Amino acid sequence: MRVQVAIIGAGPAGLILGQLLHKAGVDTIVLEAQTPEYVLGRIRAGVLEQVAVDLLDEAGVGARMHAEGLPHKGIELLIGGVRHRIDFVGLTGGKQVMIYGQTELTRDLMEARAAAGLKTVYEAKEVSVHDFDSDHPRVRYTKDGVGHEIECDFIAGCDGFHGVCRASVPQNAIANFERVYPFGWLGLLSDTSPVSEELIYAKHERGFALCSMRSHFRSRYYLQVPLTEKVEEWSDDRFWDELRRRLDSQAVAALVTGPSIEKSIAPLRSFVAEPMRFGRMFLAGDAAHIVPPTGAKGLNLAASDVRYLSRALVEFYGGSSTGINHYSARCLRRIWKAERFSWWMTNLLHFFPDTNSFDQKALEAELDYVVHSLAGRTMLAENYVGLPFDD
Ligand code: FAS
Ligand code: PHB
Description:
Low-confidence stretches: none
Number of strands: 19
CATH topology of the domain at 2-72 and 97-178 and 269-352: FAD/NAD(P)-binding domain
CATH superfamily of the domain at 2-72 and 97-178 and 269-352: FAD/NAD(P)-binding domain
Strand content: 25-35%
CATH architecture of the domain at 2-72 and 97-178 and 269-352: 3-Layer(bba) Sandwich
Helix content: 25-40%
Shape: globular
Number of helices: 12
Radius of gyration: 21 Å
Bound molecules: arabino-flavin-adenine dinucleotide, P-hydroxybenzoic acid
Oligomer: single chain
Structural class: alpha+beta
Largest sheet: 8 strands, mixed
């Protein structure tokens, strides 16, 4: 089989790329290790930057997002029991974010790809990538025990942090930058009305908490927990009790509890692999970088990479290699700004058990400065809503 671009991974990065290339007449195949149900069952991101919203519109999959998504004009920081609103619209000249779950976004993309009759192989096993340092890369996989080989012009490694593409790059050709945090996020999804109109990021001596949502009827909550915690040790009641301890009386009074429909613990990590291009193979999304979810950047960075990559590949087929030659540098400049913001938000809002007392006090002073300074609130707001592209 031959295609122009073989996309590994049917998460947001792979599916958005597939849609954008399809609209430009570039033929693709998507190879996904899991079933569609498994991919949709992973509860992940909830916040879309305007650039991601625009890209989904460009990909032709924005209708349900605009119908069901919730535009948000700010967030609240709850620090020492005091709320500080970060007014996105006022601080960024009108920018805002869209609350729309990654699960729904992925469902929309899956349906659009199927409706267009584009080839996607789910449960593709033993995927391997070959000769990406030549002009004739190939991808191999098995499906139902039958081996297949795909000849292509390019391989898009959209296969996430544990994927095969980055792992196939020789060690001496890639540099990894990483920070692992000494805690995780215990997340709970419930069909209950959200505790507030906007997201609440709470810093508490017992640990960080986040009150988010997916709609007016479905809420998403997170608690910072030690890495030693096991999700099976957290009953719903224990979760709700701990969340109440970290919120103010206004939120506690408004909290509607109910049975969890999903509960999981995610580790927190900052990670970047450089470069993101290896001959005819490009990494995009979590395959190349990971951020702690504190800044709500993971999915948005995947969209950002794919915006650059789709344009570069279309340019190549139009006769210019400028885009593919600049892909890695352009992505990394934006990625590192989002990595810095996510690392900064994580340091400011979490309780670090082993941080020395001076550093802890300095972080508290920094947060106090940020929420009481126009410059500090503006910096937070313009990074949270998403920095402009410097195309
Ligand atoms: P993904 O990991 O979503 O997709 C990669 C796909 O490749 C997967 O479907 C995988 O099955 C497939 N794959 C892997 N190896 C393969 C192989 N060898 N062959 C074929 N297919 C293969 N971001 C936020 O903004 N907010 C959040 O709250 C948030 N929470 C998260 C919680 C968790 C537990 C995780 C892991 C991530 C979270 N993220 C969050 C980040 C997340 O949203 C990612 O940024 C987003 O999924 C990135 O999309 P992709 O790059 O497409 O990677
Ligand atoms: C979510 O709703 O899942 C969410 C929102 C904001 C974050 C992280 C996760 O910073």
